[in-house]
Sequence to fold (540 residues):
Amino acid sequence: MMSPDYYWKIIEYLEEHALETTISLTTNLWPFYKNPNKWLKLFKHPRVGVCTSFQYGGGRLKGDFTEFSEEDFWNVSNKMKELVGYRPDFISVITKENEDKAIDNVLLAKKMGVVCKLNYAVASGPEIKFLNGIKMGLENYTYLLADIYEKYLQIYKLGLSEWEYNTTQLLKRFSSNTTCPQNRRCDESIRNFNPGGDYYSCGAFGDDKEYEIDFDKEMSQKEIETPLQNDFNLMVLKQSCLTCPMFKICNGCRKTVSDLKRLKLVETHCKKMKSLAPDIIDICKLDAVPILLGTIDKQLAKNLFNYILNKYHNPDEVTEVFNLFNLDEPLLQTLYHDNLVPAIKEYIKNNLFESNQYDIKSYAWAHVLPQSQNVGIHNHPNNHISGTIWLNDHDSHLLMVDPKGNSNMMDFGYLDLEMLTKAGDETSSDDIRHNHTSRYNEYGRQMNNSTLEFSGLFGDYVDTFDKPTKSVNPTNITIKPEIGKFILFPSWVWHEVEPNQSKMPRISISWDTRITPKVGNEQHVQGDNRAVGDPLDVQS
Fold:
């Protein structure tokens, strides 16, 4: 803790510039306990919130370097209650040394009528730690995210969720309004001054002197800097994460992503997280498959229909035309760049990450299905996102196979491209979806009126979802082709096309999209160049 004068200067600055910012202080409160009058006015200020810290198993010291005991903690908490008017919540840092006492902290919080927050020890600060007099590297000291999730699951099963903050965050399914360490957009709202006066969006990165923000520049420009979102290396642990239901959990904290890569603990973490995944998926309701539906201008769709029909249609057999987005045809370029690319980016924003530091590379083909022909059940391995756009109305449905045999597995979102284009960056995806909630009803009836929202993806779990043995599954989600309508879905999802019973050919354009780290300053969206390798799998 700095002296109270330090914080009064910050408050003065905030009020002078009319900034809606609050100061969050986390301290063991021992200085307050010893001299409450020095801190009382500051702690009662409406811009100031106070949280404290305690955990069983050692690790907390008073000013004289003696152990901060449970008795001391009660005395401090009682003094806050008496003089400030509330008993503060507290944070417990869980390490390999004290993990057996983790649940005891939650039970103490329940007894005190407050909420504790179990945080896992991250690899910040000096490269060497000493535990019980033993010299250890950071990889030995760091407590794995997967290990703390084992504790969260235990807390949930014991019925103690309301007394542990991160477990309640777990139950929120890691939506955009979660907080550290699950919020992937924390550097949009958090600012941290370290004791030396340096300015960061993350205290843990600040301890490492990484991703510093220029305070004067940010204040003068009045624009929020997001250095963590601008580094793609912090977005994802490895390529396969992009198609995993645990994506936003394992990749929620960018500091954790950085640490696991740096300490080469990605696979260790991943292996254990997969063992916990069934429970986490069940508790968080992460088992919905996100599907985005949208439409393009019908005249553009009609023009594309005529283009493909006149140039490629064979009435006697299925026709497929490959490398479609590489063709020098204005209609196809308009379709991809003006319509599909914004939709793909919106899908990524809703389901993967908010940053734009990536390239998308798509491979497309036209599909002309004559009478009596169908497309057997299949998926699109080695890709991240797949899509189809229909160029005419038809009764030959697309069947999306529910991977778990449960008809509420698929969550639909609708995208209005015109609204998206007009809104630009000023309108959030939530605004877009909420303005079209009435359009959910059509598919809500097929899904037992389940709650419709975007969720995480599956992915590495493809191996557990064998190719369906029945081509017609009663839990299939049925999509009726309509002119100009398109769909985006995870590439691993099994799907098929019903036989065409009409004399009119069923014409569609399908594509696969892979996501790779952004190279240079320009984003690559030039169509059919296949991504090669998995550059994100390199742990650096």
User: Anything to note?
Assistant: Residues 419-466, 470-474, 521-540 have pLDDT under 50 and may be disordered. The two ends are 34 Å apart (CA to CA).
